[in-house]
Sequence to fold (654 residues):
Amino acid sequence: MPELREHLQSHFGLDDFRPAQREVIEEVLAGRDVLCVMPTGAGKSLCYQLPAVVQGGLTIVVSPLISLMADQVQQLRDEEIPAALLNSSLTPGMQREVINQLADGFEGLLYVAPERFAAPSFQSVLEKLNVKLFAVDEAHCVSQWGHDFRPEYAQLGAVRERLGSPPTIALTATATEDVRNDIMTALGLREPKIVITGFDRPNLSYESRRLVKQSEKDQALLDLLGAETGSGIVYCSTRKGVDALTSMLSQELRDRPIFAYHAGMDQAARTANQERFMETPRAIAVATNAFGMGINKPDIRFVVHYNLPGTMEHYYQEAGRAGRDGLQSRCVLMFSYQDRVLQEFFIDKIGEEREKPDLEVIDELKRRATDKLDLMMRYAQSHTCRRRSILQYFGDESEVLDCACDICQREGGAAIDTGSHSRAVVVPDEVVLLTRQILSAIARLRGKFGVGVIAEVLSGVRTERTERWQLDQLSVFGLLKQYATKRLIAMVHRVIESGLARQRDVGEPGKPIYVVELTTAGVSVMKGEIPPPTSLVDLVPTGRGTRASGTNPRAMGTNPRARRATGIEPPEDDYQPDEEAMERFNRLRVARAELARLRQLPAYVICHDSTLKLIARHAPHDAAALEQIKGMGPHKVKLYGEALLSALRGSNGE
Fold:
């Protein structure tokens, strides 16, 4: 029997296997069930196509992608490999012809849409088929908790039993650990070999830009498309958005072919636009997430998300359509808080399509969707390596080297896992020490407790929890007692965002309980083998969040009771603003209203009236002084400080 590589060369014209392909194929040929997680473009289809050729007989391939089926069947036939498909794109006569071929003992690859198993004409021959291999592509569609659940996929476990439970391979590019468990359970896989090749795509550079106004987004998109001469995809969240953006780009970029794609278009128009996009150089597809699954265009140089996607799974899957040829490509996320409002609207509609909805399940689906949206927002606003964030989300601990994401480029190419840091940024010794102390506490708690308990232990606060578990006996108890518990909670979250620790859900379904544990990089930093990432350079507080020491106002932080107790600050009710303070307050309110309008936020999110009154009263002269005002802080000063200080000075610059 020819060696596998000879089959690869003679039937598919390929010189060698990609990473993990051979391992998966050998497991399939040995008759084992396999769960295969490979990133987009890693060659998943070969993992069932080559075994089908080698062992002969009938292989059934389940796929939700009608266009991909037709492409793969044609490619196989071009290689003189027997292949057929059965889906709604065939006429009734063509479907009967395929059914008759099956009844006559067809051997080869049969591509089937999942809903076809419920058709009476197919069911009549189903149990008579001698299936050698059952392949389920896009297997994440099995999980109702996943980002692309399809009810027809939930029936595939029963279908597999009717077929006699043949060896099965389930394949997906995007599956977190809980989704992988769902796949194995739903399909009834028997002690499957799990092969995860990793989620890293080093040739993709990830960027995120917050653009409040649509005009800003449009201009940024035009600038980006002007700089990128290759083909690309621009994703929008709604059909209306696709139509509007297609019209704008067609007017502004007359030298570029622009093709729209969304589910509201006529099927023939969608198919034609997809084919033209595949064949046309420098083409741009403007589409909803209905476009792209199975698109095998290797030279897509950029993927732009004009709106925030609802989940990291959607984002990674869609962004992953760039650079399938291995060359450098860009993945740009443009977002505003209005995008979140739109995604929340979609979440509210979950379950409306079900005739007899289970309210508990619907509530759980909405809760999970909201959690995933929160994570997507966190990614969009993160100041840590984006490649590392994506890998961490999917549980991949691969080392990140030479990252080209916007954050790492800003830091001079620093990569989190390696601990390398920008030559322009040096992590101070006090930050190194503080980071190692926090990591030590996480290690001592052995991944059994959450962020709140870690902060309580470090601050030395005796609570019912710390005493019940005798955590006050640990060597790290009170190690950072100079900091308030809330400040330590924020620090622990910063350490998690940096990739040195991670949160893991150990609760029951529907009742999440998150504990914190170290990552490999965290262990290395704790042991002093590598320095912390430069994203933690400002981890040490500058006077805020520390506990009172003497009567130093900075040591008091912003605790009003502590400040009033020492006579430093009188009770707010006792203070009567003078005329100048009232004028400053009114100017500040005008500035706040403008900030709220520009950022499309409620005014109180910028800051409360009580904060404006304090600013008006104390009239801080610079950002450092403004940061000490109750209700402000480094983040808000960075966002709004310039505008507030300008309003405080007034038009004449006083």
About this structure: The chain has four domains: 4-196, 204-381, 412-536, 576-649. The chain has a mean pLDDT of 82. Residues 211 and 336 are 6 Å apart (CA to CA).
